[in-house]
Amino acid sequence: MELQMATNEDTGDKGGVWVLDQQLDQPMDEEAKRLRNMYREKKFSTLMLLQLGFQSLGVVYGDLGTSPLYVFYNTFPNGIGDPEDLVGALSVIIYSLTLIPLLKYVFIVCRANDNGQGGTFALYSLLCRHAKIKAIPNQDRTDEDLTTYSSSTFGEQSFAAKTKRWLEGHALVKSTLLILVLIGSCMVIGDGILTPAISVLSAVGGINVRHSQISNEVVVLFAVVILVLLFSMQHQGTDKVGWLFAPIVLLWFLLIGGIGMFNIWKYDSSILKAFSPLYVFRFFKKGGKDGWTSLGGIMLSITGTEALFADLSHFPVPSIQIAFTCVVFPSLLLAYSGQAAYLMKHSDHVHGAFYLSIPDSIYWPVFVVATAAAVVASQATITATFSLVKQALALGCFPRVKVVHTSRKYRHQIYIPEVNWIVMVLCIAVTAGFKNQNQIGNASGTAVCIVMLVTTLLMILVMILVWHCHWVLVLIFTGLSLIMEGTYFSAVLLKVNQGGWVPLVISAAFFIIMYVWHYGTVKRYEIEVHSKVSMAWILGLGPSLGLVRVPGIGLVYTELASGVPRIFSHFITNLPAIHSVVVFVCVKFLPVCTVPEEERFLVKRIGPKNFHMFRCVARYGYKDLHRKDDDFEKKLFDSLFMFVRLESLMEASSDSDLSSLLDQQIKQSGDGLFGNNSDPYSVVDLSIASGDSIVPADSPLGANNAMSSAHQATSQAEIDDIEFLNNCKDAGVVHIMGNTVVRARRNSKVWKKIAIDYLYAFLRKICRENSVMFNVPHESLLNVGQIFYV
Q: Exposure pattern of 731-770 as b/e (b: 16+ CB <10 Å)?
């Protein structure tokens, strides 16, 4: 085995990456694959799947389950003229639930989750791993060795390879794809505003159904009070009451299913003829424009379907499928059929049809459960909104906001104060402004329909690049999806002036914020890449860097994963001294849901040893959080010390000693230094293990027998290096951050000046500073100002 030092030709970085020129045997290759597959494959017993399916009811299906509260009223706001129209509408509802939530989402789209995460950004991240379409190209080849970084290969002449080259070769296509993702995400935020409004208002509307003397203003006031309480309690998280969600939603489904069966038996069992697809054809043939317009109300029967995918969380897909097919789907079919049976005998009761069809003896218990289910459904959409904003934040598509982790047990439970209060104000404004379900329903239908269309377009690429489906299957899926969703979209467009404009306005505002922030971030990254400091210039300064090296460690934060940032040259040319040890820290987010703690940090040495310069890349997924109790600084230094130890041992160990050392480290860490990479010529970052899979900095690299295999001279050199780093650490750590101001050039176009000089500058001014996001102590922070013209 030959040990070589690899040099980064672009940056001059040395000593950070070692290449093991060794042909690994087949057993090691299979073992690496087995370890990676163990992480990805999660085996669940039947009992566990049933338990998870029960729990998923309270998280995933609340929004979809509360739709029977308002669907028929929004479908026939002017009353039911002909009973055949009611049968046709029920038939359309039945087959819409069958084709879109059941077949498309539960059995197809949910399989496209990103390690358990759903939603538009999860699909986009999945695509970013299979094609180079990410706008900020900060990924490295070593990132692909992560256990959570799954990608696939395909033949050069395959349809998938041609599609990939087409995507990567056209900047306009990549920009269009990002715009689609942002539009879908903004519509999800809009749905997060509208769903609590219509769900809670419809649920509490049961008050004046039985007591007509109570005015609608009182109902609206009651709904607003509930919404204020709901949003005000978000900072507490759902840990204490979350266990109630699943029983409440299960009880709700059992109630609406049971009431539906009772109504079918009592009023009109012939309504079951709506299960014949013939009545779908009759509905469109007879209804004309009025029938087409009523599709906007029928669309509400499948609202919550996109939230189903966005709220996947960590529930395995089989548990989602069991819950939907065994509980949700039959309960919804019975509920809608029961209401239709009641309306066949009471066609003038379409307003408040759900509550009027409830038997008197259980009216108020059902009202209480309905209100509780509406609150649970609202909570699910609010949580989905927080999760989506967190994903957008990680991918550079949202201004920096405070993200609070509300649970120590569940990583996905977060709270974002700024977003919470904005959504609350807008939700209350919609509820108090419209005061009725009809217009809010039109608005909600528009948002959900657009999200579904975006998901369909993204799924086309997932089927090609990730699943490698035959183009015929892709064509069938695309054709059926676009026919159904395009039909609904054409119907909701007819109701834009009846409330459908609300999500368009809200989404447009969020889209401008997200796109302008992303545009400014990309421009700033591009200018930093082009203005990197030459390594030859750094080496020409000598070990002292032309300054006085004072005791201490300087952590220079940069967005660059390679090369020396311009901020460093700006720093050393304006100040007379620099710290004895300089570490360039790059915190970057990858298109994966999470990065395991033991694979978080990568450390390199920059320049010769006597320069005492390092680079540490901290990698995060879009679900990972910087928490105050994470002790980021300690983990960074642990990784740095481990790097120095491995570097010293590798430099002086003989072939046999090094092989023994590597084998022992592999056994200790489980994953080994190879980071689960099956490539026999893989590049090994010396900090590939950190956190749990390495021995802490104060331990002599595991066991004494591993140390004894190294040369005594190496041990002394290692001790000296570690002692030097510890002394510098004790002398003080300073966090150096660039306060970068981005401005448009004088000859820039007007729209660019508006975007950069006004909108982006305003967003940077009101958002949180990087130091706050990284939990940097104020007393150890040093800001270095610089201006970039783009």
A: eebbbbbbebebebeeebeeeeeebbeebbeebbeebeeb
Q: What is the CA radius of gyration of the chain?
A: 30
Distance CA(87)–CA(69), nearest Å, equals: 18
Helical residues (DSSP H) of 629-742, grouped into ranges? 632-652, 655-669, 704-708, 712-731
Q: Helix or strand or coil: residue 702?
A: coil
- Under 8 Å between Cβ of 609 and 640: no
Question: How far is Cα 735 from Cα 738, in angstroms, rounded to an integer?
Answer: 10
pLDDT digits (tens, 9 = 90+) for 242-287: 678 889 999 999 999 999 999 999 998 999 999 999 999 988 888 7
- Per DSSP, 25 falls in state -
Q: How many CA atoms does the CB half-sphere of 564 hold within 13 Å?
A: 23
Which residues make Cβ contacts (< 8 Å) with residue 495, sequence separation at least 6? 293, 296, 442, 445, 446
Which of 676, 675, 298, 267 shows the shortest CA–CA distance to 492? 298
Strand order in the sheet with 17-21: 2-6, 17-21, 683-685
* pLDDT tens for each residue of 203-252: 898 888 777 777 888 889 999 999 999 999 888 776 666 678 889 999 99
pLDDT, one tens digit per residue, over 386-437 is 888 888 888 889 998 888 877 766 666 788 999 999 999 999 999 988 877 7
Q: What is residue 599's DSSP assignment?
A: G
Burial per residue of 297-308, b for 16 or more beta-carbon CB atoms within 10 angstroms, e otherwise:
bbbbbbbbbbbb
What is the crossing angle of helices 83-97 and 329-345, to 10°? 180
Output helix, strand, coil percentages for the chain, rounded to the nearest 5.
Answer: 65, 10, 25
Chain centre to alpha carbon of residue 25: 38
The answer to whether the beta carbons of residues 707 and 700 sit under 8 Å apart is yes
pTM (2 decimals)? 0.82
Classify each residue of 241-275 as buried b or exposed e, where b means 16 or more C-beta atoms within 10 Å of its C-beta: ebeebbebbbbbbebbbebbbbbbeebbeebeebe
